[in-house]
Write a structure and sequence with these properties.
There is one protein chain. This protein is of the alpha+beta class. The longest helix is centred in the first third of the chain and has 27 residues. The protein starts with a helix and ends with a strand. The chain is elongated. It has a 6-stranded antiparallel barrel with strand order 1-2-3-6-5-4. Strands 7-8-9-12-11-10 form a 6-stranded antiparallel β-barrel. Strands 14, 15, 16, 17, 18 and 19 form a 6-stranded antiparallel sheet that branches. It contains 11 helices and 26 strands.
Length: 498
């Protein structure tokens, strides 16, 4: 019995020792995040706090008060006399955005749309700039440039203000870290960070050359600064791409290299003037390039030339492909409009172009770009509808390599179409809507003036060009098409089965 007790005691004491050992080992463990400090990505600081603390005072909130005239909803009803007699009513509206100070005497940069009327018939009564410390100041509009969506304001006040300076956006690289500060959804002083996702991004505008970023940009960030890691402004946040209206990681900023000369011009109270050649152009798409036997996206196609402007005087013609201006290649990133707009007005510039497969050079004198309403007149008038072809003509069109059936352009047809009496070509009688010609918008009543830059005054001449294109291994033919009320346009049409 004593032996048995001894064994039991030993077992109990052994269990106690094991428990003590296990408890001590648990106490020796540490939390997973104890003393941790994440290593900063290469090229980025461990924290942005110090930089942001210095930059934030120069970023401001911009708000406007507007008056909007709206139609009286009771106009024309028995209640019209009770509610204003049916007259338009004036309502108050406001807008919010961001901006930043660029000088101690109170000059502020923002987007034009931040300080513009938000609706038709609206007018801006006042602009208020609010600093991060809550101080509010009235501001006056010094100048605006709608084409690049930039505006310059001046605070009404004489105290020295905190400000920031511009950096060099030409040195920005995809993958560089950037910081955006602004007032999204009226949440002042919001800081977001990310990287540059792309440069020279075009979203459809004539002068688009955006820096794209994944730093969160939302409504209200417009006009705010994008900083590099040295605290310099390399962009002005301007747009977002979003199916929902909120941030999806695709934001765009106007690069400083583009903004600085415009801002300096506006700050002086001067008008922004841009270079102009007087050409109507279109990108060299795959079909267009294929029809010409050229590489796509290298150069831009001249659809039309405005009489009396620099391009016509230099000998540039419709059908030319402009590939280089003043030594710089024309590409989707550096479009013809962008290159020419930055040239000094009155300067003589060399222009390289391709005509009928041959490269040649001309010299043009740069003019001044006219107002947008005048440019719209040069572009042509809205489409007009013509009568449809009958079943036999449609069947014939479906059997043709180009997907169109044509007939001779007689003086009678010229008069019916309302075209100049000197027009020479073949008129489209029907279009196969399942073919490329139908997809490109060709229709009955359009006149084909030339094919691959050769005049076409008969169906036989058009057929000959198509045969030559097929023998040369080309998949498309370039048609010069005239439609009533519009400038003649060059349209590449793919051959059937290509």
């Amino acid at each position: 019995m004593r032996y048995a007790y001894a064994i039991t005691a030993a077992l109990l004491l052994g269990g106690t020792a094991a428990a003590l050992t296990t408890h001590q080992s648990l106490e020796a463990q540490t939390a997973q995040n104890e003393g941790m400090q994440a290593a900063a990505p290469r090229g980025a600081p461990a924290s942005l706090a110090d930089m942001v603390e210095r930059l934030q005072p120069a970023v401001v909130n911009i708000s406007t008060k507007q008056r909007v005239q709206v139609q009286n909803p009771f106009a024309g009803t028995p209640f019209g006399d009770l509610f204003g007699g049916g007259r338009p009513q004036t309502r108050q509206a406001q807008s919010l955005g961001s901006g930043f100070l660029i000088s101690a005497d109170g000059y502020v940069v923002t987007n034009n749309h931040v300080v513009s009327p938000g609706a038709r018939g609206a007018s801006v009564d006042s602009i208020t700039v609010t600093l991060t410390n809550g101080e509010e100041y009235e501001a006056k509009l010094v100048g605006r440039d709608a084409a690049t969506d930039l505006a310059v304001l001046k605070i009404v006040g004489s105290k020295p203000f905190p400000f920031v300076k511009f950096g060099d956006s030409t040195k920005a690289r995809v993958g560089d870290w950037v910081v955006a500060i602004g007032n999204p959804y009226a949440l002042s002083g919001t800081v977001t960070a990310g990287i540059i996702s792309a440069v020279h991004r075009n979203t459809g505008g004539t002068y688009d050359r955006f820096i794209q970023t994944d730093a969160s940009i939302n409504q209200g960030n417009s006009g705010g600064p994008m900083f590099d890691m040295n605290g310099n402004v390399i962009g002005i946040n301007s747009q977002i791409l979003s199916p929902s209206g909120g941030n999806v990681g695709i934001g765009f900023a106007i690069p400083s290299e583009q903004a600085i000369p415009i801002i300096e011009t506006l700050r002086k109270g001067e008008k922004v003037r841009r270079g102009y050649l007087g050409v109507q152009i279109s990108p060299l798409s795959e079909d267009m390039a294929d029809s010409l036997g050229l590489a796509k996206n290298r150069g831009e196609f001249v659809q039309g030339v405005e009489p009396g402007e620099g391009a016509e005087k230099a000998g540039i013609r419709p059908g030319d492909v402009i590939v280089r201006v003043n030594g710089r290649e024309v590409t989707p990133d550096e479009t013809l409009s962008l290159l020419v707009s930055n040239l000094p007005i009155g300067s003589r510039v060399p222009i390289e172009l391709i005509r009928n497969g041959k490269r040649m050079s001309v010299t043009a004198v740069v003019g001044e770009r006219p107002p947008e309403d005048k440019l719209a007149q040069f572009g042509g008038s809205p489409d007009e509808d013509f009568s449809q072809s009958d079943d036999s003509e449609s069947a014939q069109a479906a059997s043709q390599d180009l997907g169109v059936s044509v007939q001779a352009l007689t003086p009678s047809i010229v008069r019916q179409l309302g075209l100049p009496a000197t027009t020479r070509g073949v008129v489209i009688a029907a279009v196969d809507q399942d073919g490329d010609a139908g997809a490109k918008g060709l229709r009955r009543g359009d006149v084909i003036l030339s094919a691959n830059n050769r005049p076409t005054t008969s169906e036989a001449e058009l057929d000959a060009v198509v045969r030559e294109a097929k023998q040369a291994g080309r998949n498309a033919v370039l048609l010069q098409v005239l439609r009533r009320g519009q400038q003649a346009a060059f349209i590449p049409v793919r051959l059937r089965g290509k």
